[in-house]
Design goal:
This protein has 452 residues and is α/β, with parallel strands linked by helices. The chain has one domain: TIM Barrel (Alpha-Beta Barrel), CATH 3.20.20.80. It contains 15 helices and 13 strands. The strands form three sheets. The chain has an eight-stranded parallel β-barrel, surrounded by five helices. A three-stranded mixed beta sheet has the order 6-8-9, with helices on one face. It has a two-stranded antiparallel ribbon with strand order 12-13. It starts with 13 loop residues before the first strand and ends with a helix.
Length: 452
Amino acid sequence: MPAIPRYRFPNNFTWGAATSAYQIEGAWQEDGKGESIWDLFSHNPGKIMNGETGNVSCNHYHYYREDVSHMARMGLNAYRFSVSWPRVFPEGKSKPNPRGLDFYRRLVEELHQNNIQPVITLHHWDLPQSLQEKYNGWASRDTAMYFGEYSAYMFENLECENPLWITINEPWVFAFMGHAFGLHAPGVVDMETAINAAHHLLLAHGQAVTAFRDLSSGEGQIGIALDLSQVHPASNSDADINTARRLDGIKNRFFLDPVLQGNYPADIWDFYSDHFKMPEVKPADMKLISRSIDFLGINNYTRHLVQAGSAEDDFIGNIINPPEKEYTEMGWEVYPPGIYELLTRITEEYGKMPLYVTENGAAFYDEFDAEGNINDEARINFLRDYIKQCRHALEEGADLRGYFVWSLLDNFEWSYGYSKRFGLIYVDFLTEKRVWKKSAYWYQNVIANNGI
């Protein structure tokens, strides 16, 4: 007789897994697909570990039926994937590519046949290179307008039964890692460009929500996925507390506040204004950005423990890694209470709303044992502890509707290439063979029992 879960979830709770287009699809030049900024960036020597690219990756473009069969076997209720904008609009605008749209139609049909709900992200960082070249990408308001047109096309032409749509994935990471620090595509190093990109990404979100409201037949819901991490001061000193507050504003509130409250946090706007030329905010911008959403997606992996920096211009301080803590292969502290803190904080500070954990997972070193199994106990422990904290947040009143593991498959991990593995399913990138890790079987059991 199976054990009764101690941490049981509501009967309608959604259990899923997530991926993104550039990280798994491959087929980077097939069937009329245009070039993305990641196609160009990954081919730039020295940008990606080991000189690797997403040219082939998991080859999901050709293996999607096999991958959906793995999802069905695992028991997933939902699958979060992203659409490659340049696969559908090779130039980012004007003329669509029917073969690109057809791929996503086939994928959605396969999901429906297996009773798996599509959760569709419209922008997971692979901006069409043409828009980068012609309009300076997200540094321009024009790109937000074209994103609205692309979004409307997808709403009208990708037929889904009750999908969840996510407009933008992790605008902070995309804006700042790609435009302030140059570690991600398009590789720009300019803080003012990053702040402009952040504003225009939020404008694009608003454009997409508006298009959805105008075109929706009542089916489906729309939201945004923000990368959120609790920020804790390293001590009770005023300097550490102030630095933690500032970093929380830069990382979290600068995106939460405009989407949910219709304004940028005054302390961070003023702080940025003291150092940088700020983007133009037109009278209607904030109303557009704060169009009502149906849910908020939360991507969470760790917390930030921060102390004040010694230099006068060190405005985000120093991230501290306590030696007694556990860390993933990414160097991120394993801190399960952080997800509880986020879920309850958002509920308390912004009001009760439907929430989804749209990404949560960990990279650990995976190796086969003598029997050909991958016993990734560290990943299981990570997921178990975070899911328990999600259940705790539910008990405290958070309206949590679902949880998505990052990631279904090992994939191209951006600037780390294929050196970091997050997947429930191991991928041999030479043969494209898929192998379930122990964590996949564990998650299959969690779903079957609707709890732990």
